[in-house]
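SEVERITY: medium
COMPONENT: batch folding queue
REPORTER: lab tech (J.R.)

DESCRIPTION
The queue accepted two submissions in a row. Attaching both inputs and their returned structure tokens so the on-call engineer can compare them side by side.

ATTACHMENT 1
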Amino acid sequence: MTHVPSVIAALAVLPAAVAAQDIWKTTDPDHPWAFPADHWAHPAYQTEWWYFTGHLTTTDAEARRIGYQFTFFRVGIVPERPSLASDWATASLIMGHFALTDLDAGRHGFSEILYRPTTFLGGFGDPGDSLIAWSVAPAGTGGVWTLRWNGDRFDLAARDDTRGITLELSARPTKPLVFHGPGGYSRKGTRPGAASLYYSFTRLATAGVVTMGGERLGVRGESWMDHEFGSNQLTETQRGWDWFSLRLDDGRDLMIYVLRDRNGRPDFALGTLVAPDGTARGLTPEEWTLRATGAWTSDATGARYPSGWTIRVPGAALALLVTPEIRAQENVSDLIPGLFYWEGAVLVHDDAGQAVGRGYVELTGYGTARRPAI
């Protein structure tokens, strides 16, 4: 296990053409989607993640506001498990990130796991079994982290006793599944194959229990779920991305992303606007603008992130101001040297200052010249 972080780091810095070695499946614009089977893993592709974020409110009289992130990653090493007489032989790694943010108190807690899938450390289930992904908890914590699909909902569980945070949530979709890009083929650049297969549930009614600061709290709220997989989506010159998932009070949902080159300039961008009835429409970069309005510098890493944005989609009559609920929502890995990113809850106002929604923003590639590890 001591060499696992270096494996991830090596994958991160290898040029795409070298890392792929033509052994991974190319993203197919005509992928034959089949649900619920496609909620499970796709090991022929190099990289995959299941990602949940949401805003929760405690069910006690204080009604405290909490943001959360829960993610499982499958990082492919080779497409098939090596034929070795060892229980440690593996074709991939399983990584998990889990964060809870007390939005009223301004406290952010982050936990992570990183294992090779084995019968006793973690792995990925098969369609027909409710279990999508699982791993043992971080060192020093008993139990397991799990992601399940139970026919009409996702069930999430994670804990880190050292950091004093736990999560047990059920998230039931209240809007139809939507694809990003034609048929879920989400381009990440102009190079052939620079794409992922990508779908979301933009609204999930969420309820369960979290633990923070030694308190076990009932919660309810709303979440956003992404499932994305592909092989070498990023080009050799791309170094990071800004990604937004916004749920608006009028029932619409907005996803946009901007990939940046090694000089920090926008390299490729796309978006999706989801109507209240769940109808999705792709947005080209010409249909919207994104501008940073401020910045925040991390004491932990020295990375300087944009902090606050204006988003305009004139054709949809949207003029939005996006503001972090708290600035310090950076996740810094203890397991992978140099892996850090900003993942935070945000509020959305219109240009008159009226609150019109909330969401999450992810910022990667700031404060480092290295490509993201995933």
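ATTACHMENT 2
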Amino acid sequence: MPKPIIIGIDPGTTSAYAILDLNGNILKIQSKKDFGFNEMVKKVSEIGLPIILGTDKQKIPDFIERFARKTGAKILNPDHDLKEEEKRTITNGLKHNNSHEMDALASALIAYNTIKPTIEKTRKFTKTNFNEIATYVLRDDIPIKTAISILEAPEEVKEIKKVIQEKQLSKKDYMELFEKYKSMKKENQLLRQHSIALTNKIKKIEPELDKIKTTKSKLTTKKIDTLFQIKEKRLKNFEYKIRDMDERIKELIEEIKHINKAIFKLRDYYVLKKVSNLSLKELSNVVKGDILYVENPNLFTIDSVKEIKDKITIVIHRDKTNSKTEQLVFDFIPADKLTIEEYENFALVKKKDLDKLSNKKDLMHKIIQDYKESRTT
């Protein structure tokens, strides 16, 4: 896999980026006026796989959010806007050509220092495949032991590894799918074992039943009749259990196939988190970077909006938004403008379709902001 790297970015008219490896070594620093978004993504990706993206701002800039969505990197931002003096201290003695490169380098170094203990712990427990395991641990917040188990997983889940490497699932989405997959496999195996055990019991009972049938014609006491009925009832119960277990096994196999089909599609799809509305109860499990797929976007509270305003940017909705909802800080996109594949707890949408609509929203937002600023000057 490509070498994992840490990026610091200073966006603006003159933009700059700085790239570090997992040892904290500077791999590249560059600044440029009118640095295009796609151009920067291309240049950074030529060096390695972005897994951590640093900024010197407490509130994450739109450019940083877009870069993270495009590359799959995890954003690390400070708890306050870094002052010039702080950034000079952090980058003291390190080569850079201007203030923009200094800001980008400081952002990358702060991000590196934040994750350095985790890097060292991962090295301690990892003998091979460090880069791949470190990517899971640092970018996706997956525990070290789980990351190792992913690499040791059988060939049938090889596609899942690719999905995680390319950041097509959030940590929570992936862990739910992966754990469900393992749980179903285990349950399937246990059911088969139990089914075999029941079949063997029936085979053991059958000679006894034959014996009872033979003696039943000679012995007509109530005790023998009762015993025969109990044995026959037990036999039927065992047969019912086996039939039910066979049906459950078929259902589990179909569900595993269904989940695998969803996973295989994720190269070109975003995972949408399904919620009924924007109430606090529905949003309790929302994490940063989620894209919401909501049935009724007009049901929300001030507290629920505060809870997610720094976690999400895009809300896809089935019901039409009202004027009050449209004043919220999110990008609202009607579901009927997209082709969405729905599953029980999540949905899928093509990346290119959503990015196209999202980019239009970004452009319109910028035009409106520029107009407002021009009116005040």
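NOTES FROM REPORTER
The chain has eleven helices and eleven strands.
No errors were logged for either attachment.
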